[in-house]
Structures are given as C-alpha cells and as structure tokens.
Amino acid sequence: MNTANEVMMIHINDTVNPRTGGQYVYYVIKDELLKNGFKIIELSTPLLVKKFTGDGVGKLNVAKRLLAEIPVRAQCYLTSVIKYKTDRKLIITSSSPDFPVFGHITYHQPLAGLNTNFAKTPYVRLPQIFYDWLNLVSRSLWPLAERTILIHLSNSEFTKKYLEQKYGVKSTVIYPPVPLTKYRHTITGSREPLVVVAKPLYCAGITILPDIVKHIIRKAKVVIIGHPDRIGLQIIKLLKKYGVVHLGYVSESEKIRLLSKASIFLSLAHNEPFGILIVEAMAAGCIPIVHDSGGPQEYLPPELRYKNPQEAAEKILNHLYAGNQLRRELKELSRKFDENIFRKKIISVIKYLHRIMKA
What are the C-alpha distances in Å from 128 to residues 66, 120, 123, 124? Predict the structure, then answer.
C-alpha cells in the first residue's frame, strides 16, 4: 500500500471501543476506509489521553485526564495545521467550535439539549469549569479552522439548520449508521410492560423523568441504562422508591436483549440531533416515545412524540400493549438508516475529495 492512499483522521472519538452513537460513527468511517484500501494515520483524543493516564481510576486519574486534555488538544490542533499546510493528504476530522482542528471533511453530531435549558449543567465542579475554559479557548480558533473545511456533513436536517443559523455553515445531511443487523429477529409475541430509559444525564433531560414515572409506575416497570452524571445520580436515587432500576452501563448484548423484550423506549432528550438508539429501538420492535423536537421529528410520527411529561406518560400507557403491526411498521421505517447506506455515502464523499486532493 503506497502513501498515495494515506488519509489522516483527527477527532474526539474512541474508534477502538466505541460506547456511544457518536463514537460508532467514526468507528464505521475508519472501518470503511480500511476496507477500501486506505492507510490511516489517526489522532484520537480519547486514545491519546489514555496513553497519558493509563487505565487507572479514582480522583488522581481524573486529575491526570484533565491535565492531559491540554497537551492532547494542542497536539491535535498543531498537527492539523502542519499537515494541512505542508501535506497533500486528506484530513478527516470531527472539527467543531469545541475542537477546531484544520482539515477537509468534518461530520457534525452535536450533543442533545441544543438551545434548551439542558444545554448547560446547573452545578459547578472543577471538571466542568476546566472544560468550559478549554472550550472557550477552542471556540476562538473555530473561525480559522472552519475556513479549511471543504465539506461539512450533518447527522440530520435539524443539525444542518442549527449550523447554518448559529455559524453560517452550510452542510450536507448524511444520516448516521445504525447497526440494524443486530436486530434481525422477526417481531412476534407479546412484550413485557417494560419501559427502557437511556442516558441518565442532565443534558439528555433526566430531570423530567420523575414527573413521567409517577404516572406510569403502577402499570409499567422502568429500567434506566447508562452511566449517570451528578444530576442523573440524584434522580436515580429519588426514583428508587418507585422501584425504578438502574443497570448502569450495559453490554451490547444486554442492550439488544432489553430492547427486544421491552414494550417502550423512552427518550428524554430535548433537541436530540438524531438519536441512533431511538432507531435501534425501532429496529428491535420497541416503540420509542420521544420529545417533540430535534432530529426525531424527521422520522417519527406525531403520535409517538410528546411536548410535556404528562403527555409522555399518556403516550407510554397508550402504547404499552400495542400490537405487532405498529412494531413492524417502525422496524420497516428504521431500514432507511441502515449502516450500509451510510457506508456507501461516506466513502463516496471521501473518495471524491481524495481524488481532488491527489490531482
């Protein structure tokens, strides 16, 4: 393999053990590049930070990770500038206002809670103060970095509109890859009156969960999955009196098992840019009930979207014992986000730009 097929990836995702939908996107991009014969030079902030800190846990390791962020981000930024100025290699990035590296392609997938009260946590801790400061410094460099990006890609029409209104950036929508092959089973039989909730985080709307649970707990069991933040932990403790169970981070196989037996998947996020897990629930035949905002408006019907906690509870109870026809329709609807569609589109864009870079 010669250097003519080399590309560079500079991003903020773990492509070795992806644990979020956003990280999985870059795992798929990397995998598709390798399948198409590209050699990859990669700078990944989680992997670089891990080199600084190892696998340790505890307060000391948290402090080490925070301190490592400064040289790691500086390394990514400076490397991107040098490579962009001196090399003809294509640079694929996750460049954004909070990670303003130079490059040629970036895929935008912002966090949930954009333009809502959930955008910023209500408590102050040292890590939060540190990241706020670091992001403030980073955003001052974004106008310069943004001008180097030739192709901006967005994960939804919602994200596309947000980028144009907020930053004047025009982008093309390529919906993210959803691993639908994990949910090949046929939808048959009855479902447990089980409601699965993911992402117990403030930015993902966890604070509205108690107002929903108190209306449904007599008829449904509620299970929460995922690592909580400080607010999420408080909510989980509060909900113990209702019998709500928190399973923490679950394996991929356990997640599939839960979605395949549960009746409802409840998304609490406001302005969720896309929602890969929502689409996974659809593929599993688990009916998603989501907030009426953000990317899910692009693929879920109004009867599955709520505007307030009371309406969310009503829609959960209305669909708790829904028949298989609706579940099959949602499974069919999920197919438009199949991972292979993303793979074909993203590699087509990369190859197009790669040819231009080589010319």
Answer: 10, 10, 9, 6
Contact 157, 173 (CB under 8 A): yes
Apex CA 52: angle with CA 46 and CA 56, to 5°?
Answer: 85
Task: For residue 17, give the 3-state DSSP assignment.
Answer: coil
Residues 6 or more apart whose CB falls under 8 angstroms from that of 10 comprise 42, 43, 76, 79, 80, 91, 92, 93, 94, 95, 101, 103
pLDDT digits (tens, 9 = 90+) for 125-182: 666 677 778 878 888 999 999 999 999 999 999 999 999 999 999 999 999 999 999 9
Give the contacts of 19 (CB within 8 A, at least 6 positions apart): 249
Helix/strand/coil for 41: strand
Report DSSP letters for 227-275, one per residue. ---HHHHHHHHHHGGGT-EEEES--HHHHHHHHHHEEEEE---SS-S--
pLDDT digits 0-9 by tens, 6-55? 999 999 999 998 988 999 999 999 999 999 999 999 999 998 988 877 76
For 50, list phi and psi in degrees, rounded to 5.
-65, -35
Tokens of 297: 């408006």
d(CA 85, CA 97): 20
**CA–CA separation, 121 and 230 (whole Å):** 9
The separation between the first and the last C-alpha atoms of the chain, rounded to the nearest angstrom, is 19
Q: Report how far residue 65's alpha carbon sits from residue 60's, in angstroms, rounded to the nearest whole number.
A: 9
Q: pTM above 0.90?
A: yes
CA distance 178 to 135: 29
